[in-house]
Structure formats: structure tokens, C-alpha cells
Design a protein that fits this description.
55 residues, 3 helices, single chain, mainly alpha
């Protein structure tokens, strides 16, 4: 509890699960590669139906 509170107070992200850490790493890596974009959830669902991979 104290670690999270200190992180929030210092405006520092705090990841508390392995799954969350993995997602954060994927996002950071995508940002470094310049692959960050914005899509609507409807467009995302349509892409999944068409066999697109989420990245």
C-alpha cells in the first residue's frame, strides 16, 4: 500500500501484476517503434473478425 501511494504521489506509474507489466512493456516497445495509433473499438472488432492480429 505504501509503495503504491508513494508512486501515485510522485506521479510515477505503478504496475502490480505480471500481466500488467507485460502489457506496459508491449506498449512502451510499440511507442519506441512508432507503432502507436488510435482506433475505434468497432474498427478493432471488425479487424479481428477479418483475421487481423492485434499488435
Amino acid at each position: 500500500y505504501e509503495i503504491r501511494s508513494a508512486a501515485v504521489a510522485a506521479n510515477i506509474p505503478c504496475v502490480t501484476t505480471v500481466q500488467g507489466a507485460a502489457a506496459a512493456i508491449q506498449g512502451i516497445e510499440a511507442a519506441i517503434r512508432g507503432e502507436i495509433g488510435v482506433r475505434s473499438i468497432q474498427r478493432m472488432q471488425a479487424g479481428l473478425r477479418d483475421g487481423e492480429q492485434l499488435s
